[in-house]
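[step 3/7] fold_predict: job queued, chain A
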Amino acid sequence: MKRRKIARTAAMFTLAGALALGGAAAYTTAYLTDHEGVVNEFTVGKVKIDLTETNWNPDNHTRIQPSEEIPKNPAITNTGVNDAYVYLEVSIPMKEVITADEDGNRQEARKQELFSFEEKAGWKQLKREQSGDNMVYTYNYSQVLAKGQTTGTLFDSVKFLNIIEGQLDTEKLDIPVKAFAIQTENTGNTGSSVDQKAAAAYNKYMNQNRDQEGRVTVQTPASSQTGAGRDTEEPGEIS
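[step 4/7] structure written:
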């Protein structure tokens, strides 16, 4: 009798264990789930310009004469993707020379610019500073240059100084022209006009390209109150 009771008790524990396991399985369910992802594609912009002088022909200017007017018409085309502020820098050589006035009167010798030009409407002078034996002029275009657009010309010709003969015979003279561009967006947009914003952007371009291939010739800031990348250069050698 005692053994039978022990066996019956063991059977009850076994059944209770089975019921406990069955109960746990009854509460296990599958979760409702989902997942999603996005890939955002960005295309990096590009600032690129071309500097052209459609009227410049070096073969026509190997024997220039005093007071001669020489066709030279620099302009910039935006060949990149982004809108840009654009700039032209012109370096005019200087020499100590004797000149004659319009009536032929001989003037005293002094260091002066050998060429002159008249800038056209649409450009704003940012700076005029001497650098060594050159007077460097910097201009910004007074409009934002969109993709595919071309500026008006800064000038259409340069005029050689009316020097007295025998001073610069056979000497080669250069008028370097450089073009610069910088994106219009996210450059601070300091100022209310295009000229003022271009001036502020020019200073950032100058700082960014200090001691680099695309640096400006004179490393002094332009005033955002008076006016204002890739760099393109036209040597413009004149003999």
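[step 5/7] annotate
The radius of gyration is 38 Å.
The chain is about 15% helix and 30% strand.
exit 0
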